[in-house]
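Worked example 3 (structure in, sequence out).
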């Protein structure tokens, strides 16, 4: 068990910044993809509301 801790310590000392950079990049990609999906849903809702408003306008005229 002690040797495993030593190996992990050496790995994190050598590649710690690389691991943190990879984790940061992955989290950024996840955040961006969720935001894009949210924007896509909002655009769909805006289009539906626009068609409803146009229908209401045509009924009023």
């Amino acid at each position: 068990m002690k040797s495993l801790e030593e190996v992990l310590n050496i790995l994190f000392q050598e590649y710690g910044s690389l691991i943190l950079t990879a984790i940061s990049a992955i989290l950024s990609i996840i955040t961006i993809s969720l935001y894009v999906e949210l924007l896509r849903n909002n655009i769909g809702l805006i289009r539906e509301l626009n068609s409803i408003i146009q229908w209401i306008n045509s009924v009023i005229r």
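Notes: The chain has a mean pLDDT of 92. The CA atoms of residues 24 and 37 lie 20 Å apart.
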